[in-house]
Amino acid sequence: MTSAAPADTSPVNAAVVRADGCTRVFGDGPGAVTAVSGASLTVHRGELVALVGPSGSGKTTLLSMLGALLTPTAGRVFIGDVETTALTERERTRLRAARIGFVFQSAGLLPYLTAVENVATVGSFAGLSRPVARRRAEQLLDELGLANRAGHLPKALSGGEQQRVAIARALLNDPPLLLADEPTAHLDGERGRQVIGLIADAVRQHGRAGVVVTHDDRVAAHADRVMAMTDGRLATDPAAAHPAVSG
Amino acid sequence: MTWTAVRLGIAELWRSRARTALAAGTVAVLAFLTMTLAGLADSLDRGSTGVLQAVDADVVVFNEEARRQLLRSRVPHGQATALLQVDGVRAVGTIALVPTSAETPAGATRVTLVGYHARTPAEPTRLVAGRLPVDGEPGIAAVDSSLRGSGVEIGDEITIAGDRVVEVVGFVEDARFLQQPTVWVPPDMWAQVRMRAFPETGWAESLAGVSLLRISPDADPATVAAAVNSTVDGLDAVPLAEGVRAIPGVDVQRGTFGVIVTLTVAVTALVVTLLFVLIVTERRVQLATLRALGAPPRLLAVALLSQATAVWLLALVAGTAGTAALSAVAPEAMPLALRPAVVATAGAALLLAALAGAGFALRRVHRLDPAIAMEDDQT
């Protein structure tokens, strides 16, 4: 896949995202719910981590904290050397646009934009000019086998095609971090395999870090590490203590 | 970024045409109501006050006993000399009104005869065809252009007050008084008609009505009016706008229509607010997804405001077209004309209402939690 950003010269095993003792509590008083408790996780360049666990175990909440969508109640999150938990809302918005690619469970495409428009639109969030964003969107769709579907609205695309468009959108600004929440949940076996293969390629071939929340064993099979969450607690992250293990 | 926002907003409207049509149609009904009410208010107002609005004056002078009634005022034109001595007064004219009737090709109609001196501030400024009579011309008149509806043309002779024949030499626009057309004549003809209508008043040597003052460009009408009142006994001078408001029914008419139009605009704001709150609520996950992907709140705000502007524009075009069509078929008793100034003013009020309504919905966008994007209920 094509990269629009300058070559990354950071070490091959550099940590792209790191969570240190992250806790997230919703509500307060007796009704407070601790969704994630003291989670620590480090993901390096070229590494794909699968977060698994039963529903309600806190996987999506942890992913939201890694993606600067949610602020931890306690603990810190770093993307590269930037502590996202210390940023203002505006700074987090800019950081998400430039450094994080999201793939949502239901693709989350805007129904009133064509596939190529959906992909190209996020370019402006990161400061790309319209023609550049458009060219790159067309190129990404071509690489993902959707060149002939670029002008179609999401309703005319299959679930797998929509998810591929969402992957193209996530990659448009060439982010170092790719986060995916149940990307294969609504896809059949073949399409699910295809989508997770694309995510794994996007991570490994371009030195990104990837975190995928999943229930899907096919995803786990593609991951470099599988980390389990239970009742808001994450199994110990060996990479946090031994960064060199990733790869 | 702003362009992207506008494109996003307009793309959503374009690709959801049925919903856009519903929203624009709803606002168009309100725009039609606003335009119709504003057009009616404007037409009625001009029909009542045109005689004073048509002259090039800044201050109106009544005699005290007239209580600011144009028909009752009897300020003799001879006061002009005294009025010209007042600081700030540059020119003085007089108009004198007599209610009477005119025989037109379409039959008898009520008119107001206006006696005036040519080349003074009393001369009507809105000549749209022909010419104005000059002092000393016998049997010549300029008439309000609404008499064209009664078949009157330039060169026609019409009979005034039963037996006075005048030739129409010009048309003046928007110069009606109390919804009646006006007939502008030199002082001699006015004196003849007044003598016939009110024989007990005797022959008038000169016009006696209201004095109209044109003031220096740097003078303030209220100050000049106060100076007149303190300098010349028995007079009641007021700025032109105040003299216009003193015409019977004008204040009540303006107040009533003002309240109705304001309420209609307020309802428009409420409807637009509801529409956009619904849109934001319905599109909550989509908007949160955009936020999650790095769209700043400003982008979503511009997208929403561009949608409000587009809905307003569609509604304005439809509402204005509807009102224009209504004015074309409206009976004569319903004076409805849509001037560009009315469309501009009402349109601006509706735009403010639309932006205010959308702006209210924006608060929800600003409070939107981007983490909602992770919810699995996206459309």
What is the structure about, briefly put?
Chain A is of the alpha/beta class and 247 residues long. Chain A has helices spanning 59-66, 89-99, 115-125, 130-143, 159-171, 189-204, 217-222, 238-241; strands at 15-26, 33-44, 48-52, 74-79, 82-83, 100-103, 177-181, 209-213, 225-230, 233-234.
List the helices and strands and how they pair.
The complex is a heterodimer of chains A (about 250) and B (about 375).
Chain A: E1 15-26, E2 33-44, E3 48-52, H1 59-66, E4 74-79, E5 82-83, H2 89-99, E6 100-103, H3 115-125, H4 130-143, H5 159-171, E7 177-181, H6 189-204, E8 209-213, H7 217-222, E9 225-230, E10 233-234, H8 238-241
Parallel strand pairs in A: 3-8, 3-9, 6-7, 7-8
Antiparallel strand pairs in A: 1-2, 1-4, 4-5, 9-10
Chain B: H1 2-15, H2 17-53, E1 59-63, E2 75-76, H3 80-84, E3 89-104, E4 107-116, E5 127-130, E6 140-144, E7 157-160, E8 164-172, E9 182-185, H4 187-197, E10 208-215, H5 221-231, E11 235-239, H6 240-245, H7 250-282, H8 284-292, H9 297-329, H10 340-367
Parallel strand pairs in B: 4-9, 6-8
Antiparallel strand pairs in B: 1-10, 1-11, 2-10, 3-4, 3-7, 3-10, 5-8, 6-9, 7-8
Descriptive overview:
The complex is a heterodimer of chains A (247) and B (379). By secondary structure, chain A is of the alpha/beta class. Chain A has one domain: Rossmann fold, CATH 3.40.50. Helix content of chain A is 34%, strand content 24%. Chain A is built from 8 helices and 10 strands. Chain A has helices spanning 59-66, 89-99, 115-125, 130-143, 159-171, 189-204, 217-222, 238-241; strands spanning 15-26, 33-44, 48-52, 74-79, 82-83, 100-103, 177-181, 209-213, 225-230, 233-234. In chain A, the strands form 2 sheets. A 6-stranded mixed β-sheet of chain A has the order 6-7-8-3-9-10, with helices on both faces. In chain A, strands 2-1-4-5 form a 4-stranded antiparallel β-sheet. In chain A, strand 1 (15-26) and strand 2 (33-44) form a beta hairpin. Chain A is globular. The model of chain A is unreliable at 1-9 and 240-247 (pLDDT under 50). In chain B, strands 3-4-9-6-8-7 form a 6-stranded mixed beta barrel. Chain B has 10 helices and 11 strands. Chain B is of the alpha+beta class. Chain B starts with a helix and ends in a 12-residue tail after the last helix. Chain B is elongated, with a radius of gyration of 28 Å. In chain B, helix 1 packs across helix 9, helix 2 runs antiparallel to helix 7 (250-282) and helix 2 crosses helix 9 (297-329). Chain B has helices spanning 2-15, 17-53, 80-84, 187-197, 221-231, 240-245, 250-282, 284-292, 297-329, 340-367, and strands spanning 59-63, 75-76, 89-104, 107-116, 127-130, 140-144, 157-160, 164-172, 182-185, 208-215, 235-239. Chain B folds into 2 domains: 2-49 and 250-374, no CATH class; 59-218, no CATH class. Chain A binds chain B through residues 60, 63-64, 67, 69-70, 90, 93-98, 100, 102, 104-108, 110-113, 117, 121-122, 124-126, 130, 153, 169, 173, 181-182, 185, and chain B through 1, 3-4, 8, 11-12, 14-16, 285-286, 289-297, 299, 370-371, 373-374, 376-379.
